[in-house]
Amino acid sequence: MPRKIEVCLTPALIDLYAIEESIVVVIDILRATSSIVYGIDNGAEAIIPVAQVEDCLNYADRGYLLAAERNGEVVEGYNFGNSPFSYTADKVAGKTVVLTTTNGTKALHLARKASQVVIGSFLNLQALCNWLKTQDKDVLLLCAGWKDQFNLEDTIFAGAVVHELRPLFTDFDDAGVAAEDLYSMAKDNLRAYVGKSAHSHRMMALNIEEDIKFCLQLNICEAIPVLEGDNLVALKGI
Amino acid sequence: MPRKIEVCLTPALIDLYAIEESIVVVIDILRATSSIVYGIDNGAEAIIPVAQVEDCLNYADRGYLLAAERNGEVVEGYNFGNSPFSYTADKVAGKTVVLTTTNGTKALHLARKASQVVIGSFLNLQALCNWLKTQDKDVLLLCAGWKDQFNLEDTIFAGAVVHELRPLFTDFDDAGVAAEDLYSMAKDNLRAYVGKSAHSHRMMALNIEEDIKFCLQLNICEAIPVLEGDNLVALKGI
Q1: Whose CA is closest to A101, among A83, A116, A122?
Q2: Which key words tag this protein in UniProt (chains A, B) (predicted)?
């Protein structure tokens, strides 16, 4: 069967794609989708993405952990933000986390009408690709970007997925070709390449170099978070 | 003075940029902006970009040449479309051409509120960059794309401009970094690289290989078309 894989470089372009019959992979490498993958892999029961910090408050009395971040910093009074080091097993196993982020949650909400929405990061790259290979649907890789703008780190991850899936797909868009080529330039030193990004400069100003390094590790997780209703949970049967 | 150069990868993202004080370079390599540069360089008095084929008809009784194209083909009854070979001196010198195209004209119209709107193509790359270097404004490189989607050929041209201007600018966005890297991969064989593009496959189906090769020539024109009112005319004093 002919299969199409496309890359949507920012959420602002999502309306150009017919996603109802597709699998959408949401990508926000620094740091939302990396932390989501790590948290689900570490046994979090669910992670609930919300669009606004204020939406978190609706969950305050249910015993959930509340994670809120704006412009890369933890919002005062919340349990934690987007750092993957907050999503270790001792903190999240068996727990539900309510998460709001600047860009990742927005992309997730825009992707909801897709046939299936899953979460990608370098941490679960191989597990994600192995699963995508076994499906019979088209794939849209949705980069969360930065305030609706293109960013490098999400794009090179999309390129890594295109590179891995290319032999099984027949249709590619120009964004996928570009993403794959950028990944080929970046892959031998992801950290140095991401260092060219304006977003990473913002991140460095926040003193989260360890977070960045963590998010660029390959294949330390097997979990694939999938959107079920309002919750991200572990995809079963992989 | 700190100067910023950014790349808007598709017209659908133009609202993310504050262009009122900037110079916007409109880019539609295959083939609108290549033909516009070639036509102005060959002495066309003006080229008037319009958004709809029907808008051309408003100019029908003024003795202008009418150029209309949709989805890469000349519209029946018009003088010509977007092929640069229609914009030779013997056809256009001293004439005004009314031009409508699928993507380029749309980008031009969206850029109108900029401080200045000029036209870029590989044909006038060096002349354009030389002029941009002497200005004191920020620069936005606006890729026309294909039906609001990212395309390779416009992006690598944007990358060529970023590459040339980098020493004089202080602020770059991630799209500019990516475009420059893609250009570095493409520059030794632009035709082969553009061959990876979905759009170029559509072009090849239209049997316009000679057009594509023509549009990928470097620096055969000195003219920089600039938008004045509704008209694209030669920038004076360069």
Answers
A1: A83
A2: Hydrolase, Magnesium
Q: Does A93 touch chain B (CB under 8 A)?
A: no
Question: Residue B88, Cα to own-chain centre: how many angstroms?
Answer: 17
What confidence score (pLDDT) does residue A9 get?
A: 98
Q: CATH number, domain at A151?
A: 3.90.1560.10
Please check whether residue A237 lies inside any domain of the structure.
no
Query: Are B177 and A196 in contact (CB < 8 Å)?
Result: yes
Does A158 lie at the interface with B, CB-CB under 8 angstroms?
no
> Is B218 inside any structural domain?
yes
A149 chain-B contacts, CB cut-off 8 A? 13, 16, 173-175
The pLDDT of A36-64, averaged and rounded, is: 90
How does pLDDT run across A101-141, given as a tens digit for each residue? 778 888 998 999 999 999 999 999 999 999 999 999 999 99
Task: Dump the DSSP string for B127-177.
Answer: HHHHHHHH--S-EEEEE-TBTTB--HHHHHHHHHHHHHHGGG-SEE-HHHH
Per-residue model confidence as pLDDT tens digits over B127-182: 999 999 999 999 999 999 999 999 999 999 999 999 999 999 999 999 999 999 99
Each residue's pLDDT tens digit, B197-233: 876 677 677 768 899 999 999 999 999 999 999 899 9
Q: Which residue of B has its CA nearest to A9?
A: B150
Q: Which of B13, B182, B185 sits opposite A10 (nearest CB)?
A: B13
Q: Which amino acid is at A182?
A: L
Q: Inter-chain contact B173–A149, Cβ cutoff 8 Å?
A: yes
Q: Is residue A233 part of a domain?
A: no
Distance between B152 CA and the closest CA of chain A, angstroms: 6
**Structural domains counted in chain A:** 1
Question: What is the span of the domain harbouring residue A172?
Answer: 4-225
| Residue A70 within a domain | yes
Q: In chain B, which residue's Cα lies nearest the Cα of A194?
A: B174
Q: Return all residues near B235 (Cβ < 8 A) that are at least 6 apart.
A: B118, B131, B223, B224, B225, B226
CB atoms within 10 A of CB A40: 27
Any chain A CB within 8 A of the CB of B187?
Answer: no
